[in-house]
Structure formats: structure tokens, C-alpha cells
Amino acid sequence: MSRLNRSAVEAFAVLCSIVLFGVPLYFVFVNAMKSAQEASLMNMNWPSRVQLWTNIKEVVQIRDYMLLRAFWNSSLLTLLSIAVLIVVCSMAAFVMQRRSGRLSPWLNFLVLSGLIIPPAIVPTIWVLQKAALFKTLTGIVLVEVALSLPFCVLLYRGFMGAIPREIDEAAVVDGYGGYRLFFTIIFPLLKPVTATVIVTSSVSIFNDFTNPLYFFPGAKNATVQLTLYNFTSQFVSQWNLLFTDILLITIPPLVLFLFFNNKIVAGMTAGSVKG
């Protein structure tokens, strides 16, 4: 491919990205600054009078500051889920990468099936109820971890294949046990892929709508995505407040993604390049 054709393809890709991501974001931002009457027109015209700050104050104060409580719930859910994911997935990937036996093909099959088989809502609710974990933070954390675990294990395993086994053997000769070997020697080497897991999983868990709706119901348990229900109903929809809410809950994941974009790419490709 010539340099001119390559530049044309790159320009076209950038243009498509702007259309797919920039236009919806601009649509949300413009309508978040409008009054209720102007926002109901659902167009991309600039508002006659900007009232973004007024909309933000109303969104935050509605239903006794429910949005602030939702931000706390979503942040706590995300932090706990990410902490469990990092420890469990890195240890599982270490065992799967370093040991081979009769169970290895079955473990690989179970991990891959977790990416293919869709989650079952009703049986999961039944299991959570029997374990007294339904409508609890522990229950929703376990659900988020279970759904994100296969992808994170594959990321860790691919990256861990680039770490020489000689490091393990030298540590064993020096008297390191299994846990000490992993957490002292191996785990610090996983920083690139750990950053990838943190960013990708944080965005998906923080923006999750379905799982908190089914497994963590209740006004006190509301997450940021569920606050969208505050401004929509069968008869009346406050579109200006709805778009303001969308804008507020989009900012944290967007900022996280922009700051750690390079680490995401490095963590997902380092294992394949080195291996």
C-alpha cells in the first residue's frame, strides 16, 4: 500500500471515529445545556440560553441527592470488583500458564465458555437468594467478577507467557514458596496488563446497567446508570435533565480512558509481541 493510500485510509478512519463518537457526545452536551422545551425538540441546534449549571444542580438535588449516593455505590462496586479481579485472575492465569496436566484442557474450556455462554438472570437470582446475597453489595460484586473473569484471565495468561520460567526456578532454588513467589516476583511484573484490566473492567463495571438492575435493586442501592430512570416515564420525560445526567456519568470513565489509553494498548499487545 502506497503512502498516499495509507494516509487516505487513516484519514477515513479518523473521520469515522469522529462521526461515531464525537457526534453523539456533542448531541448529549448540547441538549444538556437546553431548557426542557428546547431539549424536547431533540435536535443539535445550539440553545438560545445556556442553563447547564441550573440543570446540573437540579439533577444532583433530585430525589434527595440520589445521584451522589449512586456515584458512591458505583465507585465502591467498581473498586471492590477490580480488587477481586486482579488477585483472582492473576493467580488463576499463573497456575494455568505454569502448570499442565489432565485438568488443563478443561480449565481452558471453562474460561473460554465464560466468554461465549450468556448469563442466566433467573437462575443467578435464585442462587443469590439461596446464599442470602441478593440485593447485597457482596452479591453484585461476585456477579461482576464472574462476568469479567474469563476475559481478564486470558489477558493475564497471554502476558504471563512472556515471563521466562527461569525466574520461577531461580526463586524456588532460593527457597520461595508458591504464594511468596507469585506476589513477590511475578505479580510486580504484571503492571502493564494489570493497568489494562483496571481500565477496561472499571469502565464496563461502572457503566453496567443490567446487572445492578436485576441483582442489586432498591433506591438505596441505585448505581449511576439506574439514575436515568429518574427523568424518564411513560407520560413525561425531562430530556434536558436526562442528557445532563448522561453527561455527568460519562465524564469519569471518559477521563479514565483518555489518561490510560496507551497503557490499555500496551497491556493487551505486550504478551503477543514478546511471546
TrEMBL record:
It is a multi-pass membrane protein. This is Carbohydrate ABC transporter permease. One of its GO terms (biological process) is transmembrane transport. Its main location: membrane. The lineage of its organism: Bacteria, Bacillati, Bacillota, Bacilli, Bacillales. GO terms for cellular component: plasma membrane. Belongs to the binding-protein-dependent transport system permease family. It is found in: Cell membrane. It comes from Cohnella fermenti. The chain crosses the membrane at residues 12-33, 76-95, 107-128, 140-160, 181-206, 239-260. The keyword Lipid biosynthesis does not apply.
